[in-house]
């Protein structure tokens, strides 16, 4: 007798999956996003250990971080395009497999060059997870609940970035550095077969992959990311790389403007609410990364807190993101994303200003409250903004929209990191305070840009009907 195994079906637009199946798929999506974001932060702590264990230099070992970040940056848009062509499920599953293989290779790396190559492979997998996760969320949730799915992603992204150094420190305190990567293996081994079993079958769009656009994208973003990375210690070469990267970026825009479904989603950026939401996202993530880099210096150098105390005092930020993101997700079905986003970023700006104005000897509670205000503002903004970016374009371009969300986050982080580097290089007095003031300015600018979405009809609120 022949046994028929029923495959998970692709849900009709706007209906989503049954609740149990939806939670299983969502668990796999969140796990993949958690691993990819955690790994981007976790390796920083291991760099001094890797210098000793692998017998290499400080300058060379930085490529353990750079290789991963570079691979993620250049692969986001190609992964999103491939997801639209062959199906989101397939590319997301490939991302999980590549991340698993990369983690095993990292843990068994006999040399620095092997480890960097394995990190690049991990980064390719991480790009697939970051780009296709939001597109999958759009397909598995009913339209009335879709903002809750993006709230979960916002929470995981915030928590993974904040907890990365702490997790790394805990692992290194009890185990050797390969365990930083081996901890990914059990999660991937569980997630891959579960995701293949429960995720809905996706339908691709028959069109060729834009190889020339992918190459231009890799060169442009690669040079820009590397230029930002070396800005602090090789200014001349960094400026040259940024200039050449900008030229290639303009070439990419010209090349993509001639295509109906471009790799660089210019068609989506022509939709005003998506373009404004992307600009808002860049501003917000620039503010976030500036604060994440400068606050530890403020706490440890100026306020003389220990590393452990610093970690605890920073924790209210991600915790309040966890509280605010679901609330914003529920409110976004009833209130305009433009207003919710502006309120959130205005609160973030106020929190950053309050951190910049800390007294000379503040109490721990005073610091924690100001960090909590920042987290509440950021969490309140993020969910409505990402939901708007993902749902304001055609369903067939969900993959491209997911790639755009991830690229906006990456651009914001690169911009913020470069500004911190330049401010620290100037060696001005109270440089951490000035960094927080710049971060507050970005958040305030984001609030203004977000409010401008209210002038577009499609930016009113997340649609609740198909």
Automatic annotation (TrEMBL):
Q: Membrane-crossing residues?
A: 23-47, 59-79, 91-110, 116-137, 149-171, 177-199, 211-232, 238-256, 268-293, 313-331, 338-361, 404-424, 436-456
Annotated Gene3D superfamilies: MFS general substrate transporter like domains (1.20.1250.20), Multidrug resistance protein D (1.20.1720.10)
The Major facilitator superfamily (MFS) profile domain, residue ranges: 25-458
> Calcium as a keyword?
no
- Topology in the lipid bilayer: Multi-pass membrane protein
- Its main subcellular localisation, reduced to a broad class, is membrane
Q: In terms of domain of life, where is this protein from?
A: Bacteria
Q: Which UniProt keywords apply?
A: Cell membrane, Membrane, Transmembrane, Transmembrane helix, Transport
Any keyword Ribosomal protein?
Answer: no
Protein's cellular compartments? Cell membrane
Concerning InterPro entries, the annotation shows: MFS (IPR011701), MFS_dom (IPR020846), MFS_trans_sf (IPR036259)
Which Pfam families is this protein grouped with? MFS_1 (PF07690)
Q: What is the protein's given name?
A: DHA2 family multidrug resistance protein-like MFS transporter
Q: Which organism is it from?
A: Paraburkholderia tropica
């Amino acid at each position: 007798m022949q046994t028929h195994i029923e495959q998970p079906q692709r849900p009709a637009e706007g209906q989503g999956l049954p609740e149990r199946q939806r939670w299983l798929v969502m668990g796999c999506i969140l796990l993949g996003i958690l691993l990819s974001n955690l790994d981007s932060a976790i390796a920083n702590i291991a760099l001094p250990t890797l210098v000793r264990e692998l017998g290499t230099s400080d300058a060379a070992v930085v490529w353990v971080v750079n290789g991963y970040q570079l691979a993620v940056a250049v692969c986001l848009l190609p992964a999103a395009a491939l997801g639209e062509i062959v199906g989101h499920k397939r590319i997301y599953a490939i991302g999980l497999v590549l991340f698993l293989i990369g983690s095993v290779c990292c843990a068994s790396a006999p040399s620095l060059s092997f480890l960097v190559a394995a990190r690049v492979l991990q980064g390719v997998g991480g790009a697939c997870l970051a780009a296709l996760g939001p597109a999958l969320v759009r397909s598995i949730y009913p339209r009335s609940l879709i903002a809750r799915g993006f709230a979960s992603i916002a929470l995981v992204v915030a928590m993974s970035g904040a907890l990365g150094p702490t997790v790394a420190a805990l692992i290194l305190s009890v185990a050797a550095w390969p365990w930083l990567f081996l901890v990914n293996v059990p999660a991937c081994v569980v997630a891959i077969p579960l995701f293949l079993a429960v995720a809905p079958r996706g339908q691709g769009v028959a069109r060729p992959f834009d190889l020339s656009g992918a190459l231009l994208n890799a060169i442009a973003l690669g040079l820009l990311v590397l230029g930002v990375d070396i800005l602090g210690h090789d200014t001349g070469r960094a400026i040259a790389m940024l200039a050449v990267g900008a030229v290639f970026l303009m070439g990419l825009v010209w090349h993509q403007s001639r295509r109906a479904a471009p790799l660089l989603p210019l068609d989506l950026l022509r939709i005003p609410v998506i373009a404004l939401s992307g600009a808002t996202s860049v501003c917000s993530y620039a503010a976030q990364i500036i604060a994440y880099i400068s606050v530890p210096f403020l706490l440890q150098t100026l306020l003389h807190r220990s590393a452990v105390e610093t970690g605890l005092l920073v924790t209210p930020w991600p915790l309040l993101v966890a509280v605010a993101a679901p609330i914003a997700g529920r409110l976004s079905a009833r209130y305009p994303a433009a207003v919710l986003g502006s309120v959130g970023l205005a609160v973030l700006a106020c929190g950053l200003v309050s951190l910049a104005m800390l007294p000379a000897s503040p109490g721990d509670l005073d610091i924690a409250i100001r960090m909590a205000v920042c987290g509440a503002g950021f969490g309140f903004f993020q969910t409505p903004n990402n939901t708007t970016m993902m749902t304001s374009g055609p369903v067939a371009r969900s993959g491209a929209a997911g790639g755009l969300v991830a690229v906006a986050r990456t651009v914001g982080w690169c911009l913020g990191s470069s500004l911190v580097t330049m401010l620290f290089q100037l060696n001005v007095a109270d440089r951490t305070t000035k960094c927080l003031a710049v971060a507050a300015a970005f958040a305030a600018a984001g609030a203004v840009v977000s409010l401008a979405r209210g002038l577009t009809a499609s930016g009113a609120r997340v649609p609740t009907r198909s």
